[in-house]
Amino acid sequence: MLNIAVSIGEIFWSLAYRGRLGPPTGPRAADRSLGGFVRFWSLQVEPGNHLLFQQVPMVEIDGMKLVQTRSILHYIADKHHLFGKDLKERTLIDMYVEGTLDLLELLIMHPFLKPDDQQKEVANMAQKAIIRYFPVFEKVLRGHGQRFLVGNQLSLADIILLQTILALEEKIPNILSAFPHLQEYIMKISNIPAINKFLEPSSEKQPLPDDMYVKTMYSNCK
C-alpha cells in the first residue's frame, strides 16, 4: 500500500533545501521507514562527500546519492506512484510542477532579501499568483471536473501546488478569495488523512527559511 505521508514528507524536505542553500549545521537525516535511508546534506562541501556538482540538495535513498531538485522529485514521485499513469499525465504533471516551482522559488528566497525589499516582493508574489498562476489552475479545476489536477489520483503537481498555496497564505491570508475552485480544491487535498496528518503542527516537517535560518546561514558563511 502506498504510504503517501512518506512521499509527501520527502518531497517537502527536498523543496526546503532547493538550490545551493542547505541546513545550517552538518548533515540532517530523516529515517522515513522506506526500507532505505534519506539524508540531506549541508553546504559544507568536502572532497569525496558525493555532492556531484558540489551543491545541495543531495538525497541518499535506495542505495543512491541523488542531486538536483527535479531529479530528486521525479524519483520520489515515480517511486510512490505520484507521477501519472502514462506519458500524457506525466507531461501535464511536469508542466504544472515547473510553473508552480517558479512561484514557490520566490517564496523560498523571500527571507534572504533585504528588509526593505521583502514587502515589495510580497506584493510582487501576490500579483504574479493572482494574475499569472492561479487563473490557470482555477480554469483546470473548473473545466475537467476531477478531484485532482491530473487524473483521479494524487500527484506531484497537487503536492507542489498545495505547498505553494499554504506558504502564500501565511503571508497573504486572502490570496484565494477570487478563486472558489482553488479554495475547494485546497480544502479537499488538505483533508486527505495522510496529508492532514503531515500538516499538523506536531509533525516533523521542514518549514521554509525564516529570519533565524537566514541569520544562521549568513553567520556560517563568514
UniProtKB/TrEMBL annotation:
Residues 86-208 form the GST C-terminal domain. It is an enzyme of class 2 (transferase). One of its GO terms (molecular function) is glutathione transferase activity. This is glutathione transferase. Belongs to the GST superfamily. Alpha family. Residues 1-84 form the GST N-terminal domain. It holds the Pfam family GST_N. It comes from Capra hircus. The keyword 4Fe-4S does not apply. Keywords: Transferase. Its EC number is 2.5.1.18. GO terms for biological process: glutathione metabolic process; xenobiotic metabolic process.
